[in-house]
Design brief:
Blueprint: H1 3-18, H2 34-46, H3 52-60, H4 63-66, H5 71-78, H6 80-89, H7 97-107, H8 113-132, H9 155-169
The structure holds manganese (II) ion.
The site of manganese (II) ion has 4 residues, from loops.
Length: 170
């Protein structure tokens, strides 16, 4: 077995252990780990990314933001390049949500190529998820004006936007 395969498995296992008690916000309460694996899979299968550091970054992209993982831990286990990508895609959770979103937009153009790829696949995964099912807490009547229906984004437009974006980044 190639050492890269072993490294990917080690990384996926690390992420699975870290996210083990978390669920996605959908009504089915999908295990959280489905998300980082899905993001890495989008990059590998749909964008043809073979750079192992980027794929590891995708698998680990939410570990620091959403679990007790530290950047130092990522660096010690997977090296400084993987740490850098995770650092670039991690929001400062001490800031209010709107401020965090604003910072994401401000920082995006200055991110490394690998971090941009992870961010893009992350957003695509979340948009597809929103199409698949409405998140818990958004299904109530008062929220129906914000999300009139769960499948409000045309999958064809989503796919086209993805292709344009990934083409622009490569
Ligand atoms: Mn994510």
């Amino acid at each position: 077995m190639g050492s890269e395969v072993a490294l990917i498995l080690q990384t996926a296992n690390f992420a699975a252990e870290k996210h083990k008690s978390q669920r996605r916000k959908d009504v089915e309460e999908t295990p959280y780990i489905n998300h980082p694996i899905g993001v890495a899979s989008i990059l590998s299968q749909e964008a043809g990314i073979t750079d192992i550091v980027v794929l590891q970054g995708a698998l680990l992209h939410d570990t620091v933001e959403d679990t007790n993982t530290t950047f130092l831990e990522i660096e010690e286990k997977f090296g400084p390049e993987v740490r850098k990508i995770v650092e670039e895609v991690t929001d400062d959770k001490t800031l209010p949500k709107m401020e965090r979103k604003h910072q994401q937009i401000e920082h995006a153009p200055h991110c490394s190529h690998g971090a941009k790829l992870v961010k893009l696949a992350d957003k695509l995964y979340n948009l597809r998820d929103l199409n698949r099912c409405t998140p818990r807490g958004l299904a109530s009547k008062e929220n129906s004006s914000i999300w009139p229906q769960s499948n409000c984004i045309d999958p064809a437009i989503l796919q086209e936007t993805w292709h344009h974006s990934i083409y622009a980044f490569q």
